[in-house]
Amino acid sequence: MAAIMAIDPAIYPEHIKLAWASGLTAEGYGRAVSNGEVFDIACDPSGAPVGFCGCKGNEIYGLYVHPDVQGQGIGAELLGRGESRLKSWGIKQSPLRATLCGVPFYRANGWRFLRIGHLGSRGGARMEIALMEKELA
User: Fold this and answer.
1) Which residue, among 106, 52, 47, has the nearest Cα to 78 in the 3D structure?
2) N or C: the chain end with fewer CB closer than 10 Å?
C-alpha cells in the first residue's frame, strides 16, 4: 500500500489511490495465489518484504516496491524474474497494464507503450493506466 500512496497526487489523486489500495489484505493475496497468481518477493536483510512481482496467465500482474527502497534495482530484478517465469511458461509476448508513473520504468526495461486505457480499481474508482507489451522470446 505504501507504494501506491507515495505516488504523486498530480498523477493519481488521493481518492484514486485510496480506491486502488482498498482491500489490500493478506487474505486477498492468499486468494490471488489460490487463483493462480505466482509471486516473487524481495526482502530486506532483516527478512521484511520490500517488494513483489506477481505473474498470472501471460501477464505481469503487479509489481510494487516500497518507496524507501525504490531506485536500488529491486524493481528491475523482480521484473526480470517475472519475465523469466512467463518465458518458462512458454509465453512469447506479454501484455502489461501499468500505472502512468510506471511507464518510464517499463520502457527502460524493454516494454512498448501502446495506448492509455482505463481500469476499475478494487475500491470502484476508474483510473487511467498505460497498456504496454513486450516480446519475451
Assistant:
1) 52
2) C
DSSP category for residue 124: S
C-alpha cell read off for 33: 495465489
In the β-sheet with 112-120, what is the strand arrangement from edge to edge?
93-98, 126-135, 112-120
Cβ-based neighbour number of residue 11 at 10 Å = 13
List, in sequence order, every beta strand (DSSP E) within the chain. Answer: 38-43, 49-56, 59-65, 93-98, 112-120, 126-135
14-33: b (≥16 Cβ within 10 Å) or e: eebbbbbbeeeeeeeeeebe
pLDDT digits (tens, 9 = 90+) for 55-103: 999 999 999 999 999 999 999 999 999 999 999 999 999 999 999 999 9
Residue appearing with cell numbers 520490500: 50
What's the predicted TM-score (pTM) here? 0.91
